[in-house]
Amino acid sequence: MAISITEDIRSITDLKRNTNAVLEQIHKTKRPVVLTVNGKAEAVLVDAKEYEKITNAFNLLKLLAPAEEDIKEGRCVEAADFFKEFKRAKEI
């Protein structure tokens, strides 16, 4: 989802004048459009389905963060050792 500098950076004025064309571009390309005010980035428009995908991916990353911290801090065991202990504890 790389942004095209020539196509995906537009002014708020352009959005006001060409709302339908900007929305059509977002839906067609699946790329976000950066909106500028006085030449500076102000907001980003994203296709709703793409936003949903991004949000789901971000939420998954948030769930993985504690596990990554556990690994970094050495709070983990090898899978084989875990299953061996699990089977012993459950008397399997």
Describe this structure in words.
- The protein has 92 residues and is of the alpha+beta class.
- It folds into two domains: 9-46; 49-90, no CATH class.
- It has helices at residues 12-17, 19-29, 48-72, 79-90, and strands at 9-11, 33-37, 40-45.
- The protein is elongated and about 70 Å long.
Secondary-structure topology with pairs:
Layout: E1 9-11, H1 12-17, H2 19-29, E2 33-37, E3 40-45, H3 48-72, H4 79-90
Which terms summarize this structure?
3 strands, 3-stranded mixed β-sheet, elongated, single chain, alpha+beta, 2 domains, 92 residues
The largest sheet has its strands arranged as 1-2-3
The number of helical runs is: 4
Strand content: 15-25%
The first-to-last residue Cα distance is 48 Å
Order of helices and strands: EHHEEHH
| Total domain count | 2
How helical, in percent, are the residues?
A: 55-70%
Radius of gyration of CA atoms, rounded to a whole number: 23 Å
Detail the poorly predicted runs: none
Query: What is the 3D form?
Result: elongated
Class from secondary-structure proportions: alpha+beta
